[in-house]
Amino acid sequence: MEVQEQTMQTIASNLHDNIGQLLSLTVVTLSSINLNDPLRVAEKINSAEQLAKRSISELRQLSRLIYGQELIRMGLAGAIKFELDYLATAGLHSVTFNSNYFHKEGQSDQEIILFRIFQEVLNNVIKHAEATTITVVIEQTEKRLNLVIKDNGKSFNAEEVLREKRGMGLFNIQKRVQIIAGEVDIIAAPDIGTEINIIVPY
């Protein structure tokens, strides 16, 4: 029963993080289509089509949970950039990405978890924050990796959300950071937005 429950939690998390993220981006892309701007209509329709195809692929691969491993082969920074490029195509967010990332052998499992955390945060920003700018930074040293995700959207009370268990996404972020012996600092302020700072041994 315990193994079955853990399996269901894993499937639920992947559905929420991966397919939910892809479909959210699809909706954002389609809703941003402006028929008065014919030059970009085809580009956005093509982007939405590619996102839909990725959703189908993700469903097919979910049972084996191999998609994360495949995407992370381009490295954590490459995988994050891949997701941000799709988001930028919709034209609703100003996206900035800075990184001094360098891949280390033997860190792929940790990088998959970090990538899932990033997907979770990004999905929350798209669905709830009403942000217009998103900034992602990877600061890496020989002993640690710092992943920072900022937005200028609506803030929230992190302690209250976690205490009342009102946010599956925020709970998943905290739980996954703990799995890789990391720390997460959430800074949220009215009229400023939210900054999520994740520091892990690396």
Short description:
With 202 residues, this protein is of the alpha+beta class. The protein is built from seven helices and five strands.
Structure description:
By secondary structure, the protein is α+β, with helices and mostly antiparallel strands. The chain has one domain: Heat Shock Protein 90, CATH 3.30.565. It contains 7 helices and 5 strands. The chain has a 5-stranded mixed β-sheet with strand order 1-2-3-5-4, covered by helices on one side. Helix 1 packs antiparallel against helix 2 and helix 1 packs across helix 5 (108-129).
| Portion in helices | 55-70%
Using only C-alpha atoms, the radius of gyration works out to 17 Å
CATH class descriptor name: Alpha Beta
Distance between the termini: 34 Å
CATH topology call: Heat Shock Protein 90
Q: What structural class do helix, strand and pairing data support? A: alpha+beta
Unreliable runs, pLDDT <50, ≥5 residues? none
> What's the shape?
globular
Write out key terms for the chains shown.
202 residues, alpha+beta, Heat Shock Protein 90, five-stranded mixed sheet, 7 helices, 5 strands, 57% helix, globular
Fold blueprint:
Elements: H1 2-31, H2 38-61, H3 67-72, H4 75-89, E1 94-99, H5 108-129, E2 133-140, E3 144-151, H6 158-163, H7 168-179, E4 183-189, E5 193-201
Parallel strand pairs: 1-2
Antiparallel strand pairs: 2-3, 3-5, 4-5
Helix pairs in contact: 1-2, 1-5, 4-5, 5-7
